[in-house]
Amino acid sequence: GAGVSQSPSNKVTEKGKDVELRCDPISGHTALYWYRQSLGQGLEFLIYFQGNSAPDKSGLPSDRFSAERTGGSVSTLTIQRTQQEDSAVYLCASSPPTGTETQYFGPGTRLLVL
Amino acid sequence: GESVGLHLPTLSVQEGDNSIINCAYSNSASDYFIWYKQESGKGPQFIIDIRSNMDKRQGQRVTVLLNKTVKHLSLQIAATQPGDSAVYFCAEGQAGTALIFGKGTTLSVSS
């Protein structure tokens, strides 16, 4: 079946502009995660959605970052007033209902802030 | 804070050799561990996982070993192939929480 998809695959923006990144999780997966990966680094947790519960936003680096998940499916990560240090690959993952912690990742969105 | 780390940032092997990638973790409460493979330009791909009530699990050409006494995790790849060249991440977690990832080990396989 279809895996996690993300769009756009690449995004170049100017400093100060807002960007929106989209994630379509695997159908039926109730949990959705956003991570950030800087060049040559590991994955940094940003935010986690589980069903209808309030999201875990503990990883968001600043109030310029926000995310929402509509209808328990598609999620959008928004970065306002982008800065050069926001340049990274933004990865989305989803996992099935309770019983497994395995997270399945999308291909990521490569964001470059000039 | 809690973190997961890897012993070596790079590992170079010859095709056909067995590879061992190591990882140390620090959170005693973690009960689930995963190895991911990430190829250039792609998202991490699940390889194998293990729960804290196990010390060994085998998959196709891969084996994960967990030593809870010293908080050590390893990934063994048998008969390494050029297609195994990638960055390998270990991650730890608990049910309903985000995974904590290490920085990764780059595996290079030469023919």
Mean pLDDT of chain B: 90
Quote the beta fraction of chain B: over 45%
Please count the beta strands of chain B (DSSP E, at least 2 residues each).
11
- Portion of residues in beta strands of chain A equals over 45%
The separation of the N and C termini of chain B measures: 41 Å
| Count of alpha/pi helices of chain B | 0
Largest interface, chains and sizes: A-B, 24 and 24 residues
Please trace the helix and strand order of chain A, writing H or E for each element.
EEEEEEEEEE
The structure class of chain A reads mainly beta
Assembly type: heterodimer
Layout of strands and helices, then pairs:
The complex is a heterodimer of chains A (114) and B (111).
Chain A: E1 5-7, E2 10-13, E3 19-24, E4 31-37, E5 43-50, E6 65-69, E7 75-79, E8 88-95, E9 104-105, E10 109-113
Parallel strand pairs in A: 2-10
Antiparallel strand pairs in A: 1-3, 3-7, 4-5, 4-8, 6-7, 8-9, 8-10
Chain B: E1 4-6, E2 10-14, E3 19-25, E4 32-38, E5 45-51, E6 56-58, E7 62-67, E8 72-77, E9 86-93, E10 100-101, E11 105-110
Parallel strand pairs in B: 2-11
Antiparallel strand pairs in B: 1-3, 3-8, 4-5, 4-9, 6-7, 7-8, 9-10, 9-11
